Amino acid sequence: MAQSAYSAPNQNKTRSPRATEYAAFVRITSQIKQAHEAGRRAFPALAAALHKNRKLWRTLAIDVADKDNVLPAELRARIFYLYEFTDHHTDEVLAGRAKPTALIEINTAIMRGLAERERVS
Questions:
Q1: CA distance 73 to 83
Q2: Which single residue of 20, 54, 61, 104 has CA 20 to 30 Å from 8?
Q3: b/e for 106-117, b at 16 or more Cβ within 10 A?
Q4: Which domain of life is it from (predicted)?
């Protein structure tokens, strides 16, 4: 096992922070979509995906709340607002009062923005 872990060091590419964020959003959003489309029996999978999404958004909120964050203040405020919305909407989905569609749409919009910024950089 150790030999295979060290045998091909060039196989793992280093990702930019944006690419890492993009990959996390893709993975989690896909999990939310799949669980939602699978119906009621997949509620445990949906709850797990929503938990991951909430953790991702909480991480982003902590990052943009940091006084040393270099993003423009307006963008930081918008990201923090999205965190608050996703946190509240996740509660509504878990309680059965809402569908995860808004969370999927928000994540998809963030992915588009991350992909665009990665292309421009």
A1: 15
A2: 20
A3: bbeebbeebeee
A4: Bacteria
Residue 111 falls in which region: left (phi positive, over 0), alpha (psi -120 to 50) or beta: alpha
- Sorted by sequence, the CB contacts under 8 Å of residue 77 that are 6+ apart come out as 64
pTM, full prediction: 0.84
Which distant-in-sequence residues (6+ apart) come within 8 Å of 91 by Cβ?
none
- Residue 52, judged by CB atoms within 10 A of its CB (0-12, 13-18, 19+), counts as middle
Please, are residues 106 and 88 in contact by the beta-carbon 8 Å criterion?
no
pLDDT reading at 68 higher than 50:
yes
**97-106: long-range contacts at Cβ-Cβ below 8 A with a sequence spacing of 24 or more?**
99/36, 100/32, 100/36, 100/46, 100/50, 101/36, 103/32, 103/50, 103/53, 104/29, 104/32, 104/33, 104/36, 106/82
CA torsion angle 40 46 48 51 (round to 10): -130
